[in-house]
């Protein structure tokens, strides 16, 4: 069956559902469906991410490649009809990986594959020391003070659990954030951990660690899953394991930036809907799924709306955020925080924000702000999104993501178009995050979902803040 025939059949089924009492303009609903169907067939998302990853490759926060990519993206927006395009710079502490190596030197020499954790300091030569293994961050925190003096702390909490919503990531990424500080507090000279990923490839996942009192206290490394197994097995066999670690990583002063462009609202241009993703990436791959894809999806969705023949009432603002991936000494370097500081009191006119930062695989559920579940707007959105396989979630969307998190914290409602993350953490923060991992058909389904939903919001007077329950409003 051809795609258009499948859509017609699904639309007929969706329309058989109970119609909502809220009578949003029928022409708006029909236009949202037309935008959805057109986006399934053709959009610029793949073109954007292809050019971004091919022209600029990896885009570490604050690097010349991120800065050049931002300038190019602003021109790309202008060429595709966006208004009020601008680049907003903010200061940043950047980080360069340099060169790194690791090996088992006792009981017998073996090579290891590692990746330094983002913003870790270099080793200032070669560190050679005995490894002490822990199976959780809690066990490391419970170690006696001074018990790791002159040693390398190793946390192996086991393989990440593969889940559609990526819920297995959080329990392990906290080890990456807090582990180096915990190890330093016990006297360790370095920190290593099983890399945070759902794959078993000999390809470590990097990621940022946390500053403590303005510094990252010691060198930290992610150890590829097979190598983490190797070290753990040796220790379980009763061997005393010694490692050598080397890194020339260092920080430097630089700037990052947000790239902003708009489809200006027809009648209420001061009411803003933010579509967010991030421009920066880690340095091992080319940042195709994390998060070139998100930029392509949100840009293409906004352009699809602009090309529908009728601009919506409210302004749609696409923000390609800088510096999402890294921690900062003073917690002010994130692009989301810089955006919030820049808009000031205008935050009160931000209607809602959404973030695309989970690859390019299909959207399967819609999460709306607290109080919107079961609302008339939710019923209309469900009818429009059902034909492309998106179902309503009964769980409210509360936080959004790292980029729009500051807006959520300032009281802006957020939505989530939840993607299938089953394979996302096989690739995330690795050298395998490359363009060939994107499925164009699934990416088009993302664009269709974003375009249809955002149009429904942008050409309506729906007020998600007014729907918020009293407890959520107080929070």
Automatic annotation (TrEMBL):
The answer to whether the entry has keyword Phosphoprotein is no
> What's in the keyword line of the UniProt record?
Carboxypeptidase, Endoplasmic reticulum, Glycoprotein, Golgi apparatus, Hydrolase, Lysosome, Metal-binding, Metalloprotease, Protease, Secreted, Signal, Zinc, Zymogen
Q: Could you give a GO molecular-function term held by this entry?
A: carboxypeptidase activity
One Pfam match = Peptidase_M28
GO biological process terms, semicolon-separated:
proteolysis
Please state the span of the N-terminal signal peptide per the UniProt entry: 1-23
Q: Where in the cell is it found?
A: Endoplasmic reticulum; Golgi apparatus; Lysosome; Secreted
Q: Which GO terms describe its cellular component?
A: extracellular region; lysosome
Please give the InterPro entries that the UniProt record associates with this protein. Answer: CPQ, Peptidase_M28
Q: Which residues form the Peptidase M28 domain?
A: 258-453
Q: How does it assemble?
A: Homodimer. The monomeric form is inactive while the homodimer is active.
What protein am I looking at? Carboxypeptidase Q
């Amino acid at each position: 069956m051809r795609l258009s025939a499948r859509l017609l059949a699904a639309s007929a089924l969706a329309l058989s559902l109970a119609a909502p009492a809220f009578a949003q303009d029928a022409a708006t609903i029909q236009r949202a469906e037309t935008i959805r169907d057109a986006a399934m067939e053709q959009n610029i998302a793949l073109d954007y991410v292809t050019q971004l990853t091919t022209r600029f490759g990896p885009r570490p926060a604050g690097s010349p490649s991120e800065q050049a990519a931002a300038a190019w993206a602003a021109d790309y927006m202008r060429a595709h009809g966006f208004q009020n395009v601008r680049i907003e710079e903010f200061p940043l502490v950047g980080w360069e990986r340099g060169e790194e190596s690791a090996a088992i030197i006792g009981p017998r020499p073996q090579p290891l594959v590692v990746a330094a954790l983002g913003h870790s300091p270099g080793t200032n030569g070669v560190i050679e020391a005995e490894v002490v293994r822990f199976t959780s961050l809690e066990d490391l925190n419970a170690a006696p003070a001074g018990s790791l003096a002159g040693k390398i702390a190793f946390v192996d909490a086991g393989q990440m659990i593969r889940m559609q919503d990526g819920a297995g990531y959080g329990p392990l990424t906290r080890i990456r954030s807090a582990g180096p500080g915990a190890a330093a507090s016990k006297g360790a000279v370095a920190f290593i951990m099983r890399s945070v990923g759902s794959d078993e490839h000999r390809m470590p996942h990097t990621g940022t660690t946390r500053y403590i009192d303005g510094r990252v206290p010691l060198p930290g490394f992610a150890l590829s899953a097979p190598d983490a197994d190797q070290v753990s097995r040796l220790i379980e066999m009763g061997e005393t394991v010694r490692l050598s670690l080397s890194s020339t990583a260092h920080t430097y002063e630089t700037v990052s930036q947000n790239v902003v462009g708009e489809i200006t609202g027809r009648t209420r241009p001061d009411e803003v809907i933010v579509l967010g993703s991030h421009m920066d990436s880690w340095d091992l791959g080319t940042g195709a799924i994390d998060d070139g894809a998100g930029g392509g999806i949100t840009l293409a969705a906004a352009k699809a709306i602009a090309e529908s023949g009728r601009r919506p009432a409210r302004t749609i603002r696409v923000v390609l955020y800088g510096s999402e991936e890294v921690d900062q000494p003073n917690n002010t370097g994130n692009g989301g925080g810089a955006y919030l500081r820049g808009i000031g009191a205008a935050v009160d006119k931000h209607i809602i924000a959404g973030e695309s930062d989970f690859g390019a695989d299909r959207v399967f559920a819609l999460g709306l702000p607290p109080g919107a579940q079961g609302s008339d707007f939710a019923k209309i959105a469900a009818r429009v999104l059902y034909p492309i396989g998106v179902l309503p979630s009964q769980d409210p969307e509360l936080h959004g993501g790292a980029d729009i998190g500051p807006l959520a914290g300032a009281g802006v409602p957020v939505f989530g178009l939840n993607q299938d993350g089953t394979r996302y953490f096989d690739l995330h923060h690795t050298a395998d995050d490359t363009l060939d991992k994107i499925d164009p058909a699934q990416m088009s389904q993302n664009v269709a979902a974003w375009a249809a939903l955002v149009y429904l919001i942008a050409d309506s007077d729906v007020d998600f803040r007014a729907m918020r329950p009293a407890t959520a409003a107080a929070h």
